Amino acid sequence: MSTSWQNIQYRLLKSHSRIMLLIWINIAVFLLVNVPGTIGKIFFSSDIINVYSDEYLRLPSSLVRLSHRFWTPVTYMFMHAGVFHILFNMLWLYWIGQIFEEYLGNKRTIGLYILGGLAGAFFFVFFYNVLPVFANDPGLVAGSTVVGASAAVMAIIVATATLLPNYTIFLMFLGPVKLKWIVLFIIVIDFIGIAGFNAGGELSHLGGALFGFIYIKQLQRGHDWVGFFTNMFRKRSKLTVASKNNSKNSANKPRQEEIDRILDKISQAGYESLSKQEKEILFRASKDNEG
Predict the structure, then answer these.
(1) 60: which strand partners?
(2) Domains and CATH numbers, the chain
(3) pTM for the whole thing?
(4) Most buried one in 109, 153, 177, 207, CB count within 10 A?
């Protein structure tokens, strides 16, 4: 028990995981909005903080409102509607995000999260203004908003399942279940939910899911769509190395073609199908991706 708790403490406080960074950011934003809001409501009978956060941080479906709240496609993915909303989003991000970073390192995590969230924002705004069931109701379009990290988290979940479809997770009451079946179930539920009360949220989930799927397929073809995020957060050395003898490093660093071949093999037959040498190559590539 103590060992498990120490592992959790390490991951929460000392690891270099970008997943944990995203979790802490989401928690910080949630507390910064809701703690003052709760204090204002209890002691001053004022709900002004919640009103302003909803008005200026949620993503609106109205194109007119969006033009005046152009930052909301980013802010909405770090906001949550309640304790259980953020709890389940962060649990999924923690559970699946660890698997994602285990196989692909941590350089792609933030980029995938943000682009997945933006894809979810696009799906929500686009379909609310195009699908007749929403567009034919001007009041609905004008007043609808979406909030939450679900689209961004879905991008990471689906990306992981696309990379490792046969990865097995133990679920309470169900036992071992392959990741691809879990994701398929979630996507079907989200699709059905478009006809329900949380249509905007379900649309954003599907947008994030689609981006996660396409991203991994493109990555396996050698196209890394979130690579520019890596360059944005990379620390550049001010020193110049005089020697040009890089033969040792070149020999130790796996080639991209080899990594892509191994990722294809994992996608088709699972991680256990890899040889010891292939696992070692993937491990070295993961270490290269840590920053």
Answers:
(1) 145
(2) 2-228 (1.20.1540.10), 245-289 (no CATH)
(3) 0.77
(4) 153
- Mean of pLDDT over the chain: 83
* pLDDT greater at residue 256 or residue 138: 138
DSSP state of 82: S
Rounded to whole angstroms, what are the CA distances from 255 to 88, 251, 262, 285? 38, 9, 11, 9
Query: Does residue 195 contact residue 252 with C-beta atoms inside 8 Å?
Result: no
pLDDT class for 148, splitting at 50, 70, 90?
Answer: very high
Q: For residue 24, what are its two tokens?
A: 């802490």
- Cα of first residue to Cα of last residue in the chain, in angstroms, is 30
- Cα-Cα-Cα-Cα torsion 268, 95, 217, 128, nearest 10 degrees, comes to 130
Residue 246 has pLDDT above 50, yes or no: no
Tell me the C-alpha to C-alpha distance, in Å, between residue 84 and each of 26, 122, 218: 13, 25, 34
Q: How many residues does the structure list for the chain?
A: 291
Pairing of strands 168-171, 175-178: antiparallel
Q: Which ranges of 221-255 does DSSP label H, i.e. alpha helix?
A: 227-233, 247-252
pLDDT tens track for 268-281? 666 667 776 777 77
Residues 50, 53, 55, 57, CA torsion sign: negative
Q: Give dist(CA 159, CA 277) in Å, integer.
A: 25
Report the alpha-carbon distance of residue 11 to residue 6 in Å, rounded.
9
What is the mean pLDDT of the segment spanning 41-65? 91
Q: How far apart are CA 209 and CA 157, in angstroms?
A: 8
Model confidence pLDDT, tens digit, residues 112-137: 999 999 999 999 999 999 999 898 88
176: which strand partners?
170
Please count the other Cβ atoms lying within 10 Å of the Cβ belonging to residue 77. Answer: 29
